[in-house]
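Protocol step 6 of 9: fold each sequence in the batch and record its structure tokens directly after the sequence line. For illustration, a two-sequence batch is reproduced in full.

Sequence one:
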Amino acid sequence: MAISNQEKLVSEIPSVDSLKSKILNYRQREKFLDKWLNIRMSTILPALMKRTEIDCWIICNEEYNEDPVYWTLTPFSWITARRLTIMIYYLNEEGNVEKYSITRYPIEGYQQKWTNTDISQMDTLAAFLKELNPEKIGFNMSKDFAYADGLSHTLYQAMYDAFDDELRGKIVSAEKLAVGWLETRSEEEMAAYNDIVQIAHTMIAEAYSNKVIHPGVTTADDVKYWMMQKTVDLGLEPWFDYEVSITRFGGKHYEGDEIIMPGDMLHCDIGFRYLNLCTDTQELCYILKMDEDDVPEDLKKAMAVTNRLQDITKGEFITGRTGNEILRNSLQKAKSEGINATIYTHPLGFHGHAAGPTIGLWDKQGGVEGSGDYPLYDNTAYSLELNAKVYVESMGGEIPIAMETDILYKGGKVYYLAGRQTEFHKVK
């Protein structure tokens, strides 16, 4: 019996389940991530403390009210803080970081300094800081970055009350140190990121196929929850509620229980965390009509416009430029080329909408005060998120061609992680 082209196409779609053997189990992850943490502690943290001129960084948090940076600094098994947990990072004269803890339970790799529990933790902290005699004491306080604002008012006041005037005079915001720690990727993390993002591309490719979609039967939510369930089944962690939506002739927009029909354009937005690194991906699919063998040419050209906008934006990535400068330059160049652009690109890493320079928000195309003024540094990752509004006759009007692809900025160059979409997925 002859095999149709469509059957050949379906058979060539990679299976997400085939990736299971590559994904580390829980025990393997613990060993692996603790090794990565040690590398980050010995390379990234000392360099950042020198760059920000903070020689003493304090993370002070309570169980179930952890500082956002807490879990990025502690061993894998320390899922939460234990009671009141105080961690101290001190840059010594040799340029190495010494790690201390003042907590009821010792932390592996940290020198425990609270041995006499007749003295309070705060008084112990103050006495120990007098011994260290740092020049600056960094607290996680920030107006512009939530990730760098993890110190509660209560604990700030408790430390301030325990300090004498000399120690109080050394307190500074650790905003730039916290953001730098979160955004900077190690060589090992950068090497691994490509394959992590490839998982997302593989999942979307299978979701956007006849393996999952039966036109006239399958709904947008069916596709969404198929991807969410696959994410969980693989042992990965969704960091937001996935989205699958439908754009139909006339620019009509649907999601939820709306049935997918021929002539529809599908848009998805998915993101998960694996090995402490997040993905964030949006791709497009076209549902072929009965008399179509390919995506309409004007829709293909519309995607090419958004691809061009991606190239324009990444071309403005230059070390030291702020997010607002990258946004302004990109929008100006896009406008000069006749592209109706909206750019809302964000840092990516330990978190999905991560710490680092904000490069536009969908409702703030004139720049973002605070986080948009933060500069671009090397060895950082981003989700290149944007759209171009294009008139597409076959879709009956102007529609946004929204795409999101993950990139790495390394050595002054931008790299697409696991490539990018330049052609529509298609389903018959």
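Sequence two, same batch, same settings:
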Amino acid sequence: MANEIPYNELGPEKILQVYDPITGMKGFVIIDNTKLGPGKGGIRMTPDVTVEEVSQLARAMTLKCAIAGLPFGGAKSGIVADSKKLSQEQKQAIVAAFAKAIAPVCPEYYVAGPDMYMAEGEMELIAKTLNNFNACTGKPASFCHGYSCGIPHELGSTGYGVFIATKVAFAHLKKKLVGAKFIVEGFGNVGWFVSKFLTELGAILVGVSDSQGAIYNSNGIDFQELDNVKKNKGSVIHCNDAQKVNQKELIFMDCDLLIPAAKPYVITSENFQKLKAKVIVEGSNLPITEDAQEKVHELGILVVPDFIANAGGVISSYVEYAGGTADEVFPTVEKKIALNTKLILEKADAEKISTRKAAIALAVERVKGGKRFK
């Protein structure tokens, strides 16, 4: 397992593999760095999740929490299971077994949260299993302990943060966001909310995708109609307001702004030259491969890195962890993401480096310095 993970001066500090023969639960926790506080990161449940994948995501959380100025380190965990093939009872048994297995590190070294196929109900189960309200965040709003209550991921904090980062990026470039055409790859929690906020502001949604396909209309797609179609028919492809297009080609179609908000590594060194967007705001984790990141920068495309733009979720997690309320989430997300996006864009310009290099340099500086930012 160790051969799969790149080690450096930041970590990872701890790797815990767990297994329960009764439920068949198999999983792992990667605690990357705890210099600024307990490692924070969600639990993803997929049949093909790997230690290598989780280690990369844990490192992203280290950088994300440092940049956001939170008293959290970075961590991530995975449960190897196909949620779609499990009954509710089977899934609950596996989640409970996982919670018991990670008790030696949670919540002292690791604070869990939602991720793929792990939502507020699973977070409540973990907190109850460990009898610790702070074992995880993203719990239901109805689940309270004393004066503190859960703040569910579904509130939309991540999408709102991507929206704020987009506003700052366009202001930095002195470009108008009103009337700008944008494409969203992935119409899930993040993609739905960022589409809502941007169209309400006056930007024009021209392309969108989900797991079943993609659609595009250069004149614009009505968000309300799209929302109704998604809710009632299950996929954006049933929207009459646009034409179906190749799902993999959507991100390369004409637009001013591209927001990847689904799969990792959709932009690679083999396809980056096909990009037409002038601004990319990364709503998903690692949408651009490592070897393509600098190449995209050299094309003159402004990229707001994932651990800057999509930090709204972990900022919301901190509000919950600190005993705050849902009303505090959006103002806190806006303050932190606006400040840090502006800081990184200015640093990149001043030092004539890519935004990702600028963001990583600042995050590493904060982690090594051990400073806790408010």
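Proceed to step 7 once all outputs are recorded. Observation for sequence two: The chain is about 40% helix and 15% strand.
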